[in-house]
Amino acid sequence: MMGISFTVLSSGSTGNATVVRNKDTTLMIDAGLSAKRIDELMEQRELSGEELDGILVTHEHSDHIKGLGAVARKYDLPIYANEKTWEAINKSVGKIAEENRVVMDSGEVRDFGSLRVESFQISHDAAEPVGYCFYDGDEKLSVATDLGYMSDKVKQAISGSNVLVLEANHDIEMLRMGRYPWNTKRRILGDLGHLSNDAAGEAMSELLTGDLKRTYLAHLSRDHNQMDLAKMTVRAGMEDRGCFYKDSEFKLCDTYYDRPTPWDKVSEP
Ligand SMILES: [Zn+2]
Ligand SMILES: [Zn+2]
To answer: Residue limits of the Metallo-beta-lactamase domain (predicted)?
Structure first.
């Protein structure tokens, strides 16, 4: 039994792309790097674009759609996005064949062969941003980044996951002290911005159940975060709220802006 496996090809404000697959379906979530770079990253995980069955879009920010049109054209792939996101990406995505423009409503559940996908709305400064859950049998993987805050709706959508890819964008202090203009800082810190390490820790204190084996910390700011700091802060935020775990039961895992994570099987303990 194969179940769900995945690799985060790249994560961060310089570009996001993740590949999720099971025995009969391979999907990419976002294509926020150049098509050439995405090809290179896939090659590093012994994956070819020919194996992809489609691309799911979370929202229209360029770090999520930079190579979307080019990758879709190169491999003749359907693109899945909700109506408002389609409106927002229409110009930048270039020419896409009619049959490859697929509307997938927010909250819709869609079966791609034996891989079930469900989208859920998130709070972020985009037209209609979403995250995605993937199901195969009793396995569940959820991808949730670009979150202004962890709403009850998102928490509900991603609860019961075996593996999570969750945003830990910035260290609040590093961001406050940093060189960004005040408006940008306010945007990032706001309810339509990005999830801080602290907020990710708080969320994790509620999300950690026996089902959850790993959380990949994702979309880290290169200017205002570091992986070690993010992990430490998330764990501290969990422990502050009485949520303790053994390293043998649960792990916080790295993602990278410049290389893919190893293939990970959701069923692995
Ligand atoms: Zn982003
Ligand atoms: Zn965004």
So the answer is: 14-219
CATH topology of domain 74-256: Metallo-beta-lactamase; Chain A (3.60.15)
Ligand 2: distance of its center to the CA of 159 in Å?
22
Q: What size, in residues, is the chain?
A: 269
- In angstroms, the CA 162 to CA 34 distance is 31
State how far the alpha carbon of 60 is from the alpha carbons of 17, 89, 137, 182, 192, in Å: 13, 6, 31, 24, 14
Q: Can you name the residues that pair with 139 across neighbouring β-strands? A: 136
Asked if 168 and 220 count as a contact pair (C-beta separation under 8 A), the reply is yes
CA 13 to ligand 1 centroid distance, Å? 5
- pTM for the model stands at 0.97
- Report which bound ligand comes closest to the CA of 219: 1
Q: What is the structure's pLDDT at 1? A: 59
Q: What is the pLDDT of residues 195-231, one digit of tens each?
A: 999 999 999 999 999 899 999 999 999 999 999 999 9
CB distance 29 to 52 below 8 Å: no
pLDDT in tens, 221-266: 999 999 999 999 999 999 999 999 999 999 999 999 999 999 999 9
1 vs 22: CA distance, rounded Å? 10
Residue 27 host element (H or E): strand 26-29
| CA geometry: angle 28, 166, 11, nearest 5 deg | 50
The DSSP secondary-structure symbol of 262 reads P
| 63 CA to centre of ligand 1 in angstroms | 5
- Residue 242 CA to ligand 1 center (angstroms) comes to 31
For the chain, the domains span 74-256
